[in-house]
Amino acid sequence: MANPDNSNPEHKEGPVAKTIEEQTAKLPSDLFLWAALGSMGASLYLQYTGDRDRSLFIGQWAAPFLILGLYNKLVKVEGSD
User: Fold this and answer.
1) Tens of pLDDT along 11-65?
2) Which domain of life is it from (predicted)?
3) What is the tally of helices (H) and strands (E) in the chain?
């Protein structure tokens, strides 16, 4: 039977993870969406101006920003522990 309060004494977060989660929970969730969109826009601009290497580098930032946004949302919804 599942534990209703989602607490498992065998799987507690360490002090570093707990501190990081407390700080990231303070950030607005849409910050990560705007960062992803901004990196895509910057990548498009750089591609248009002919700076292909930088365009590809900055364009790859979108996925990590979105993943960080999901992490941020999970911490806010589920909490740290």
Assistant:
1) 677 888 888 888 888 888 899 999 999 999 999 999 999 999 999 999 999 999 9
2) Bacteria
3) 4, 0
